[in-house]
Design brief:
The protein is built from 16 helices and 10 strands. It has about 450 residues and is of the alpha/beta class. A hairpin with a 2-residue loop joins strand 4 and strand 5. Helix 1 packs parallel to helix 6, helix 3 runs antiparallel to helix 4 and helix 10 packs across helix 11. About 0% of the residues have low confidence.
């Protein structure tokens, strides 16, 4: 048989293999509740199959590695034969291919678990993938134990009807959704969050890992806009962001201060950035010295930042944002790395700031040691679709009754997912609070 005939047979065999795999994957995706049309899209198909196998993270890596492996293969083919560059591309391609095999094992193993099949099927997937695809796709005995939609949809978790009423002197948050495109699909990071916080209140922001605390803060401050209306003193933060940004202060967990600058130089630089451009040099200096006195830093104003104690450095970090005299002050773990006594003193200072008519919102992982200083608590939780939802907002003392717990730590364990060591009751309290909002709206109407 001639070389031309062999190439023709090889092409026909490859086409038949691709057709069998595509048809099989079409039916598998359909069985699992995914979009069958994805079987025609390279890389996306593998990612969708990984979701069916409950191995989404592995599927992302597999898709990325597939692209990288293809790039290395092209680089190898285009490089001069026997050259150093060709060898590098070939070695990189082999390494990527070996990694792909590892992730394929994980994905196929996940499929076996979802379809309640023994692991011996892994051999069939690797050595006869086209036929295996046809069997799993078209044989009615091969059924997934759970469809994709059962995990991705938010069925049964109530969404509230209405929103929070605007406050003339306070913060009003009405977030319908905060959505991103996450690896070929739309994903809700936040949903249905409504609250009104009066001035003079110090509020704890509580939630487990991935509950959406950072996303919530970014949406409220306007750093990452959501499908929302954020009103501060009845001014729209999104529409008037350039004007309102000086009225919002955010202190991150990790400061970005230069250790070789003095305290007063650090605060002066912050004033140049945070105060409106129309501020005179005299007024700027006056404000810097006022803040130094207010945060107990006047005695160390000429000291280098790197020489400060942990508590002094935290106060300076807060003072940098407070320089613009914001109405809304948000802090992410300001007590991180501080002992109990120093942390208590810092929170007492934040309490005093709130008492001066500000709104102070704080994220902390040790809330129970200073909970007496807070007025309210916002509890964010991941619902069954992994979307950040509002499980409670209100007075601290009422939160204990609402959740039936005696501490903030116990409340957090209640709403955390079971795989995180919690009770997995987030959906219950999300639905409960959404129902309360809806009921309150109906009474008001």
């Amino acid at each position: 048989m001639g070389e031309t005939s062999m190439m023709a047979l090889d092409t026909i065999f490859s086409f038949i293999s691709w057709l069998c795999m595509t048809a099989g994957y079409y039916m598998i995706l359909k069985k699992c509740g995914a979009r069958p049309v994805y079987c025609l899209v390279p890389f996306v198909r593998e990612y969708e199959i990984s979701k069916c196998a409950d191995r989404e993270k592995e599927g992302r890596t597999f898709a990325v590695l597939s692209v990288i492996s293809g790039i290395f293969w092209i680089g190898f083919k285009l490089s001069p034969e026997g050259s150093y560059v060709a060898v590098v591309f070939e070695v990189a391609e082999v390494a990527a291919y070996l990694a792909l095999i590892l992730y394929q094992v994980r994905i196929y193993n996940g499929l076996c678990q979802i379809f309640n099949r023994r692991r011996r099927w892994l051999w069939a997937w690797f050595f006869c993938e086209p036929l295996t695809c046809l069997i799993w796709g078209f044989n009615s005995d091969f059924k997934p134990s759970r469809k994709l939609g059962a995990k991705d949809k938010n069925e049964g978790v109530l969404v509230s009807e209405g929103g929070a009423a605007a406050l003339d002197d306070g913060l009003t948050v009405n977030i319908e959704k905060r959505t991103v495109i996450d690896f070929f699909r739309k994903k809700d990071l936040l949903k249905d969050i409504h609250m009104s916080i009066p001035e003079g209140h110090m509020v704890l922001l509580l939630g487990g890992s991935g509950a959406g605390k950072t996303t919530f803060v970014n949406a409220v401050t306007g750093y990452e806009k959501a499908d929302a209306t954020i009103l501060l003193r009845n001014n729209d933060l999104y529409e008037d962001y350039k004007k309102m940004k000086y009225d919002v202060g955010f202190v991150p967990q990790l400061d970005l201060m230069r250790g070789y600058d003095t305290v007063i130089r650090t605060l002066s630089d912050a004033a140049a950035l945070r105060l409106p451009a129309s501020t005179t040099v005299h007024d700027r200096r006056k404000r810097v010295h006022e803040v130094l006195e207010e945060f107990g830093l006047a005695a160390v104003s000429n000291s280098m930042v790197e020489k400060l104690s942990g508590g002094q450095r935290k106060r300076l970090s807060i003072a940098m944002e407070f320089i613009s005299d914001p109405s809304l002050f948000i802090l992410d773990e300001p007590d991180s790395g501080l002992d109990g006594v120093v942390a208590r003193g810092l929170f007492e200072k934040l309490r005093a700031i709130a008492d001066s008519g500000k709104i102070v919102v704080v994220i902390t992982h040790t809330p129970d040691r200073v909970i007496d200083l807070f007025d309210d608590v916002i509890v964010l939780a991941k619902d069954s679709s992994r979307t950040g939802r509002l499980a409670y907002y209100g007075p601290v003392k009422d939160a204990y009754t609402y959740f039936g717990k005696d501490s903030m730590e116990e409340i957090l364990l209640t709403i955390n997912q079971k795989e995180e060591g919690g009770e997995g009751r987030a959906d219950d309290f999300v639905a409960k609070y959404a129902g309360l909002i809806t009921e309150s709206e109906k009474k008001a109407g």
